[in-house]
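Kindly review this protein for my students:
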Amino acid sequence: MIDTAIWCAQRGWPVHPLAPGSKVPAANCFRCPRERHTPVGCPCLEAGRWCHGFHAATTNLDRIREWWGRQPRLGVAVSCGPARVVVLDVDAHTSKQPQRDRLLPGITIHPSIDLAGLENGFHTLALLAAYRGQQNPCHDETTLRVETASKGMHIWYSLPHGLQLRSSSGATGAGVKAALAWQVDVRAEKGYAVAPFMRTAKGSYKPLGTARKPAPLPQWLAKELIRTGHGVSASPAHTGRMNRQMLRRTDEPIDGLSRLLDSVRDCASAAEGTGFTSKLNKAAFTAGGLVAAGRLFEAEAVDRLTEAAESARPQQRDKIARIISDGLTAGARRPLHLEGSS
């Protein structure tokens, strides 16, 4: 275990101990659970002892040797946020399929698509990749992939500069703030992943193929993670800039959306007779298709549509909001992919 901890730390991944044979953070003192205090000011952390899970994660080799030298059977976990990695945790457990609108949040799966046999995270991640016309991350031999003790898979990627992601579970539905796909967890900020080569009572975490480091996060996955609510940033302004950079192809116009928005703005020159409602609906429908295809961030779509519409009809805000909402919903049923993608 100490070799695994050092191997991770040497790659810049902060590590913290797991209970022997488990994937649960190791307890340290009895005082902390009784007092239920926060990690801030915890005497264990201040004294260089592990406590509070990923809050104690470190790359300090002397501290790592002291921790695992004292308890060699401690497991190893990587704190994903400070390590600048995101890990897709694909669940292999067979489960009852939920309603199809909960399989891929924000994506409408047409009733004509046969979902018979879809039972776990391997299936939903493959479905998402096929829907976007991209390689299934489970088959990405360029990046670190780890078979888990339960025969699932951890897919590791490094994050681009400026992108910060939040963790989520593979649960989807009402009340869930972020989810990439049913039965696919996301390990990122304020989350941890069991280290490669780790052994638990239920089995080992075995790297697959030859890749032993995370490849850069593919742009299409970055778009999906941002679209599904995983984006985190220090300020809304920075988030907006980051989202626009990640979600828009700057070398290609976005399927005439700007032209459609200009036609909406042109309605300001006349109060009636300009087809304002139909023009705004067409622009919203197009934007909905771009959002569903992962080519435009939904918040940006709403902002751009609202700005164009209110510049022409500032007195019709309620009506504008309804048209935009209906148009985006309808457009989401017909994603606008790049030419040559499926």
The mean pLDDT is 84. The CA atoms of residues 67 and 234 lie 33 Å apart. The longest helix spans residues 276-292.
